[in-house]
Amino acid sequence: MPGSTFTHLQQSPGKFYQETTQPKMKFGTPQENSDGSFKKRDIIKPVYYIKVLQRGLNDQLKNLEIPDCMYGGITERNNVVNALEHISGRFFFTVDLKGFFNNITNSQVHQTLISRGFTWNEARAITNLTTYKGSLPQGAPTSTTLANLVFSSTAEFLETFCKERNITFTVFVDDLTFSSIECFKKHTNQILETLKQNGFFVNHRKIHYRKHSCEVTGIIIRKGKLFLPKEIISHRNKPGVDKYIESVLKQYNAYKAIANYK
Question: To pair with 250 at 20 to 30 A between CA atoms, which of 114, 127, 179, 189?
Answer without folding.
Answer: 179
